[in-house]
Amino acid sequence: MGPRGRGLYVGRRAAAAGAALLLALLLALLVLAALYGRCRREEAPPPSLRAPGPAAPPPPAAAAGSVRRLPRHLLPLHYDLELWPRVRPGQAGPFAFSGQVNITVRCLRDTGAAVLHSSGLRSHGAAAVRGPLSEPGAAVEVAELRHDQEGEVAVLELRGRLRAGHLYVLQLGFQGRLEEGLDGLFLSRYTDQGQSSMLIASQMEPTYARRVYPCFDEPAMKATFNIRIIHNPSYVALSNMPAIDVSEVKDENGSLWTVTTFNTSLKMSTYLTAFVICDFNYVTRTERGNEIRIWARKEAIKNGYVDYALNITGSIFAFLEDILNVSYPLPKTDLVAVPGFGAGGMENWGLIIFQEAALMNLPSEEFTIRKAMIASVVSHELGHQWFGNLVTMNWWNDLWLNEGLASYFEYLGATFGASITWMLSGFLTEKLFLKALTSYLKEFSFSNANQDDLWTHIQMDEVQLPAPIKQIMDSWTCQNGFPVLTLNLTTGTVRQEQFFNKNNRKSTDSYNNTWIIPISWMRNGSSQPLTWLDKSSKMFPEMQVSESEYDWILLNVNLSGYYRVNYDQINLKRLARLLENDPKAIPAVSRFQLIDDVFALTDFGYVPIETALELTKYLAREDELFIWNMVLLNLIPDNLESTLKNHEVYPLLKKYLLKRMLPIYHYYAGFIPQNVDALEDDYFAQAYLEKFMATACWLGLQDCLDLSSELFAKWRENPEYKIPLLIRRTVYCYGVAVGSDKEWNFAWEMYNHTDSDEEDEDILLYAMSCAKESWLLHR
């Protein structure tokens, strides 16, 4: 690949993987910061004890910061929870569930009412309050149980008072509807081995536990749980902890039901309680005493669809335990692939729920982006077992502590790093950052924290910084957006402003945010000491360039910071010239960042498109697929392919790109048939190569069209011949497109072949739509 210049570099695979997803992560954490920024929102006051005021029902997590808080008179310590979904196989519905919850609480302040969350539930039997528990047989009479559906609370009005310092037990029976939704306790229908089936599962985050059982549904109100599930004998019941007893009970009609009792949970938030009642099979293995089971449809288990997920889960657990120096505290972990589940995954402690696509991989898919996606989602949810479950944010406005840190370890677990947290670990050094995280986890285990608690632990280490950690990080987590740095290298001036779309800016808009920004940079290939921009504009004499065209500056080396860079024309011309003469003088990730920045600056009205194209003239010498992938996604977005093909710009785009694509195309066209196994574990390279080859054929590169025809013909001659999966979609499509009705008929025949798997069927359907003859398309 050629010699490397001096400076700071990261490995090629880490570079490709990290850079490809980093910008998406920036956007994700930008959204999180905007929604949950704790410094910008004031928490609503607790409702009145006697008459809880109205509050809008919380939409999904986005509005959780505005939800009314419970009064702090009672602190939950323990739940005894029985849940009975009245569902039998083949039952048509409607469906319901009932239950009983006994909540042990400590009274912190004298009160004449007990207020807790309840939404959409009906009372079942009389509510009662036992205690003080120090007085055997004592009780406090309940005068009235009121449900405030708008405020999502239940209020137990008492004839006596609960006294501070004493323990009491709140006893409530409840009933609810079991519907085919995706929140609270829900029912899901699916097909397994040709038979219609259904299961019951739960999704409690952020505020849906109150839809399943009356509870103190706030993340800081942690407690332990004893859970008992009554269910049909043909199903198995799962919860956060291992089952310790299975018995039987008869209902009022004499029908037999199974009772599964689970071990006492660790101290946790209500949004992490979880239930699954299903007719699934599982595969299992044990890692360091942690029994890992992956549950899925029987057909999926039989066909090995979750084997890959099982193979990686234990090693990711071990990796996280080792790097954090904090053991996983549960004896088991169930991962369940739920058909139709809305989120990619939900990190319930000990019972993680996934959508099927996030956990399943066809054994025949040796080369697929799906493996990378599975590794990513599993790593993220396992990261939450520490960040979110063991230590939980005090309130939803610090949700980024859960999501940001889980994302960081998601991409470490799958060989990456992530946005604000990545930047933080960069200027602290990863060793100090991990040391601080370990200290933070150990202090707040089974408890709650806010972002200032994390800053305190990071500040414990003596790191030379321009301001306290809290001040630096508040500038990133407590305001909207992220910055763009504009350079004038004649004077050495660096100016920051919020990165915004100038094309859509209104005259009344105000963008005055300022960040404390760590700037990693290099000059003429040599890395320079880290410097900081802590005001809107600052002059750095060391960044002034001379008149020599060989004197150049590069900022944000290896994408270590959370910002865009807008260079002046002098430096851009020098960087463009350098790329044409010696592209390896700039690290691969920095080449990616440089070009991606300029395309983003073009889209948002900072620079003309000619500036971006100037930086891509060198591409004939670019051999990194992840950089090519970024360029092609910017110039030929997937959703605009059909539009661009019929646009007047297409011939110009074709001419511009094809002569630059030829060198790397010829390398990989020869590489794929002979050495494709070398890409077996490089999932992102597979995806990038698939996009590259598809674009080459889309642009009409004759060599690509010929290769597609050749491989398609070889497949027609011998249907057992396997076209490499990463180019199969392209070969099928263009084999049909440049062929005749014979190729189309063969694709149709193979589509109807009984042995075709689902993915091949999808590819063949797509391929048949590539036919150029309209009469074929209308058959």
Automatic annotation (TrEMBL):
Pfam families: ERAP1_C, Peptidase_M1, Peptidase_M1_N. Residues 44-65 are annotated as: Disordered. Zn(2+) binds at residues 380, 384, 403. Residues 308-413, 417-476 form the Peptidase M1 membrane alanine aminopeptidase domain. Binds 1 zinc ion per subunit. GO terms for biological process: peptide catabolic process; proteolysis. The active site is at 381 (proton acceptor). Belongs to the peptidase M1 family. This is Aminopeptidase. It comes from Catharus ustulatus (Russet-backed thrush). The gene is LVRN.
